[in-house]
Specification:
- This protein has a single domain, classed as Na+/H+ antiporter like fold.
- 74% of the residues lie in helices and 0% in strands.
- The chain contains 14 helices and no strands.
- The longest helix has 29 residues.
- The chain is globular.
Length: 295
């Protein structure tokens, strides 16, 4: 619980920094450091610990089950909403905050051992879906052309993916470099959570029924379906619990930013991201408790 309390404190620190004389792009600067330094360092440390067996497939494939369920949910429950609202929900329901918020929460609820599986979920699931599917949604609802070449370049040259390639190719790093990489990896939690706090927007959307329904689906219904599915599989508990918690993460900040920048229901998008994080601080420990007492 000390780690959860620490994360909550960092969220509040980040939130209140926005009321001081910090530049508006402060969170963006933190995000760049996390993406180019903290996350690659974490990947270099954690990925060599993975034994690539059938268990590798679970965190890599479940994000696509969440994507399928989310698309069906939007079609069923929001068919009468505006195109902009549906576009925002097509982005925000499938995509969870599985790295910036997810990794610190995994460390607090499951332990550092879970990060290697969280990385698989994030890189092969969330990031790939954001890059390909997210860009498709924006292009489709904006009437733009889809550039497959740029999608591929974004994935290949994404710094954590490059670190993943290096770690798979060379395995564990030379022992002399490990302490230095560990220091860089330890910047992930404070910088990522402060950045999340700094970008929090807590103004409720104009259409509160859509907001409540979307948040209910994202944080309760979809993870519960994944929970029922995972409960029937024969994998190690740590892999299943990590995959479950990643699937139950609140809407992704980057997906919300893309929706807002594209003009897709900006207030709804901001509210889902902001309140999603606050509600997930409650729902994630509940999923952990249920898993440990039911699985």
């Amino acid at each position: 619980m000390e780690q959860i309390f620490f994360i909550i404190c960092l969220l509040f620190v980040g939130y209140f920094l926005k009321f001081l004389e910090f530049p508006k792009n402060f969170a963006q600067s933190l995000n760049l450091f996390v993406i180019y330094v903290s996350l690659p360092a974490t990947v270099l440390l954690q990925v060599p610990k993975i034994h690539f067996e059938s268990s590798f497939l679970l965190p890599a494939l479940i994000p696509y089950l969440v994507l399928l369920l989310s698309v069906v949910a939007v079609k069923i429950f929001f068919q009468n909403e505006s195109q902009n609202t549906k576009a925002a929900l097509y982005l925000l329901l499938p995509l969870g905050n599985t790295s910036f918020f997810g990794f610190p929460m995994l460390g607090a609820l499951v332990g550092e051992e879970s990060l290697k599986y969280g990385i698989i979920y994030d890189l092969f699931g969330s990031f790939t879906i954001l890059t390909i599917y997210g860009a498709f949604v924006i292009a489709y609802f904006s009437g733009d052309l889809i550039d497959i070449k740029s999608f591929a370049k974004k994935i290949v040259f994404f710094p954590p993916f490059l670190a993943l390639f290096v770690s798979l190719l060379f395995g564990e790093m030379p022992q002399i470099s490990v302490p230095f990489v560990e220091i860089l990896s330890q910047t992930l939690v404070p910088l990522a959570i402060i950045s999340v706090g700094f970008t929090l927007q807590l103004k409720l959307a104009d259409d509160r029924i859509v907001f409540y329904k979307a948040l209910f689906l994202k944080l309760l219904v979809l993870p519960s379906i994944v929970f029922a599915f995972l409960h029937s599989l024969d994998f190690e508990n740590i892999i299943v619990l990590t995959t479950l918690l990643e699937s139950a993460m609140p809407p992704m900040i980057t997906a919300g930013a893309l929706a807002i920048n594209a003009g897709f229901a900006p207030r709804l998008s901001a509210a889902l991201v902001g309140y999603g994080i606050m509600v997930a601080m409650i729902t994630l420990p509940i999923y952990q408790y249920l898993f440990l007492h039911i699985a």
